Amino acid sequence: MKRIHGVFFEESNLTLGTGHTQKNQKLKNYCMADQVDEAQVKLTFLGDDGEPTGIEITMAVDEFLKRFTFEPSFMPPKAKSKDQKLADKHSAMAEKHRERKEYFSAEWEYNKALKIEPENIRANFGVGTLYMEMGETDKAKDVFKKLAQVEAIFEEENKHIFNEFGITLRKTKMYDEALANYMKALEISPQDENLYFNIARLYYDLGELEKAQEWLEKALNINPDFREARQFKDILAAAAKKT
To answer: Which residues form the domain of 25?
Structure first.
């Protein structure tokens, strides 16, 4: 009998927001799996740092094979330096101030983070979006142009940011930067239907309906049940009739 042993993941969907702002994000939950006997597998779940969380369960082999996928190339996230942890701490404090609309306190905390680590992605993206909320569009654009040059934003561990970053660039009408961001992101995550959808939205904003349709179809080819994409397809069809 070939025994089950190694790192596996189970993919789940996380729904964020409500109504027209609702979006789904795919998450991978990793575990170390070891087969106990012919009937059972022991799972030790791993945290964001790749280390065991202390949570262990036993599962039937048949159920395990239905739910989990082998990840032979699993690499735990890089350990953060002392400066990175401190910068993240200030960013977290800034985010709490933003929630309370204490914008100047939030800006102060973000800037403290950036003095410690100038290329900190969380702090740069946070202060850029903060400036947007404050109505300081020029300041926001300067931050986003700087952030677009930070290679680390396109690392797999920052996937949740580079998609949001592209959306923010589009909303600030930085279309060239947004498109470059999405294209680079696609090199890392070519099966992410959200990236194709957002490129379609970008071309729609530019009035290039044929290109928007082309990219939207790519999103639907990956995920035919993509609700927002289907709704957007109807919008594109209505817009095309008017031209």
So the answer is: 5-70
